Amino acid sequence: MVKVLLASCASLPTGDGDDDALIGALADVGVDASWTVWGSGEAADLVVLRSTWDYTDRRAEFLEWCSSVPTLANPAVVVPWNTDKSYMLDLARMGVPVVPTVLAEPGFSDWPAGEFVIKPTVGSGSRGALRVSPGDFEAASAHLYSLGGPALVQPYQAAVDAVGETALVYFGGQYSHAFNKGAMLTKDAEYDESGLYIVERLSGAHPTGPQQRVAEDALDAAAEHLGLRRTDFLYARVDLVADAAGAPSLLELELVEPSLGFRQTDTTAPLRFASAVRTALSRF
What we know:
The chain has helices spanning 22-28, 59-68, 78-82, 87-93, 137-147, 159-163, 209-226, 269-281, and strands at residues 2-8, 31-37, 46-49, 72-73, 102-104, 116-120, 130-132, 151-155, 165-171, 174-181, 202-204, 235-242, 248-254. It is α+β, with helices and mostly antiparallel strands. Helix 1 crosses helix 8.
């Protein structure tokens, strides 16, 4: 049997639970899979990035390790680009409908007129994200300074409060399933034990045709920018929100270590993932 490693971080050596069905699904299709902590140096026919969520504090080390893995999924070329959220500017230039995004450094002053969000360009989950009230530029400047590096500034999309975000999941470039993420930057948000991350409220979802079109346009643009094909992405999660007119806009494109919502969809999704892994293995 070929060997596949699912890479996580030291605090979650076997993932966070969402991927629990993957080991069995891979075994069912003849793939021997197990967990490893990134950076361990353990060899395999394919190494799949999963819950490597401490990379934000060790990004240079993480990028070096990824570049040293000859059979990495998603491909190593994806990692430096997609772990810096300024990739949103690249996608906007390529015509993908994204939430309006500007890059800000400490000293930035061109704040949006209404509510807006500041979030670090390198970060996971909700850590470091701040929802700013209209005109509260003093708080915005202080937060930007506290981040100690570049950040994205985006107008807050009010529809999120009512309908949340829609996350579309793709395996091997093909749509698998979707789930909904409730609004996170709210006054009643709950935090995990660390006090750094907001607890996500997740449920199943059924995307519309326009949402699927925007998601696939984003994947195609990312692949083109990186010199790849959409099918080179073993997995992808495309997070969409509705703009003021109700049209889908890209909030984030997750190609490195996203939760894939297996617990929010049917039991066949892990098998679709396993099939995509087998296809990826055939390329090496």
